[in-house]
Design goal:
It is a single chain. By secondary structure, the protein is an alpha/beta fold. The protein has four domains: 129 residues, Rossmann fold; 171 residues, 3-Layer(aba) Sandwich (Rossmann fold), CATH 3.40.50; 78 residues, Helicase, Ruva Protein, domain 3; 65 residues, Arc Repressor Mutant, subunit A. The protein contains 19 helices and 16 strands.
Length: 456
């Protein structure tokens, strides 16, 4: 179990003894008596907390604190001052100390401050690494794809990330609209501030209004306490309004005002709240059709559609499928502790030819299922559900008659051979099952195989 390391800088021997004896029960303690020894310790190792006297034999504790924080910028510092040194303690806080103790102090008071400082330091570190992980996760080079269609999206995202302009992301379900929104936010000047997501299609109108704008106590039945809305929580950051096309006309009016003035009123009050929020909206609907059908306000559409991004379907970027397969395979092998080695050529070919109505999300779910069920080894045709082989014959063999004509019998033979090959692969060579897939009698298939012995 990790024990936090505390550096105590104190020249009074009696305080040294008391502090070391009391703190070493729970922490790793290093005690030194002056500035030079303290700098040597900091230069040779990491500490989670610095506990130091202000007056030291070879210099000022405040100057020492500045030097150490230059090396360990996030380490919290608790200063110890003699009686009547309140002004010095305040100066220490202003220069970045976490807190101060006035001598003489109780051990209970000391322990409370030490625990509080270490907890604060731990939260800061966790927040830093969490933020770094998010930034890394939504870097453009971690959004998988190198097809021309998705590269155009990446270029656009890179251009607009630094601006505050409103963005409208359009694309089918499962294409990765939220991933694009996160890439914009985490590569923008607002990346240190919150990204707040609201699914406008998942809540009824009354609940969505409260979710977006908040409410005061008693605003409606069940409103026992006041609640901040998502716009207020997103202040100085970004709000992502997913499925904005499902928003009711009444809420569209309120959203339009926020876009125009960055102001709104929580439900149940006339008090106006001012915010500074970047808005990114997304929808799978064709909003131009919704305009014609009077389901979406024209003025709101043009306010949202300042910078439009259209995320391509997976069928339009089928060249990315092999990359996505490898990415998801590695991900689920790691998460599920499996050892699936890859996909056969036939499986990869079939998946590249499939239409993917559920887009990238459908592909991700399929790979997760295959990894869990397969466990280890290569994923073969027989591991793939039948629907992923429902490819039209035109994708296997062009049926357009060329100007010079074609050998009809040879073409039909090629198509027949390909279908029989797929059926046998999918059934691991079981002729009964293969005949069933081809809607043939078993004897008919066997006769065909005898004639095609050189091929099969």
């Amino acid at each position: 179990m990790y024990r936090c390391r505390i550096l105590v800088v104190e020249d009074d021997v009696s305080y040294q003894s008391v502090l070391e004896r009391f703190l070493k029960k729970e922490f790793n303690i290093k005690v030194v008596g002056d500035c030079s020894q303290a700098m040597k310790q900091v230069g040779s190792g990491h500490f989670d907390l610095l506990l130091m006297d202000i007056k030291l034999p070879d210099g000022s504790g405040l100057d020492l604190m500045d030097k150490i924080r230059h090396i360990l910028p996030s380490v919290p510092v608790i200063v110890m001052t003699g009686g009547g040194s309140a002004e010095t303690a305040i100066q220490a806080i202003q220069r970045g100390a976490f807190h101060y103790l006035t001598k003489p102090f109780s051990l209970t008071e000391l322990k409370h401050l030490v625990d509080k400082a270490i907890h604060h330091h731990r939260l800061e570190k966790e927040n830093y690494w969490y933020h770094q992980e998010l930034k890394s996760k939504y870097q453009f080079d971690n959004i998988i794809g190198n097809s021309p269609a998705i590269l155009e999206v990446f270029k656009l995202v890179e251009k607009i990330a630094q601006s505050d302009s409103t963005v409208l992301i359009q694309g089918g379900s499962g294409t990765g609209k939220e991933l694009i929104a996160k890439a914009i936010h985490y590569n923008s000047p607002r990346s240190e501030k919150p990204l707040v997501t609201v699914n406008c299609g998942a809540l009824p109108e009354e609940l969505l209004e409260s979710e977006l704008f908040g409410h005061v106590k008693g605003a409606f039945t069940g409103a026992h306490v006041s609640r901040q809305g998502r716009f207020e929580l997103a202040d100085q950051g970004t709000i992502f309004l997913d499925e904005v096309g499902d928003m009711s006309p009444r809420l569209q009016v309120k959203l339009l005002r926020v876009l125009q003035e960055q102001k709104f009123e929580p439900v149940g009050t006339s008090q106006t709240i001012q915010v500074n929020v970047r808005i990114i909206a997304a929808t799978h609907q064709d909003l131009e059709v919704a305009l014609k059908e009077k389901r979406f306000r024209e003025d709101l559409y043009y306010r949202l559609n300042v910078i439009p991004i259209v995320v391509p379907t997976l069928a339009r970027r089928s060249g990315d499928i092999p990359l996505l397969l490898v990415h998801f395979l590695e991900k689920f092998n790691r998460e599920q502790k499996k050892n699936v080695t890859g996909f056969s050529k036939e499986v990869t070919q079939a998946l590249c030819q499939y239409e993917w109505p559920g887009n990238v999300r459908e592909l991700e779910n399929l790979v997760e299922r295959l990894v869990i069920l397969k466990g280890e080894g290569e994923i073969l045709s027989r591991d793939l559900p039948d629907k992923y082989f429902s490819v039209s014959l035109t994708s296997q063999q062009s049926l357009c008659l060329p100007p010079e004509g074609m050998d009809f019998n040879q073409t039909m033979e090629t198509i027949e051979n390909e279908l029989i090959r797929q059926a046998l692969m999918r059934t691991a060579g079981n002729k009964n099952k293969a005949a069933g897939l081809l809607r043939l009698k078993r004897t008919t298939l066997v006769e065909k195989l005898k004639r095609k012995k050189a091929i099969f």
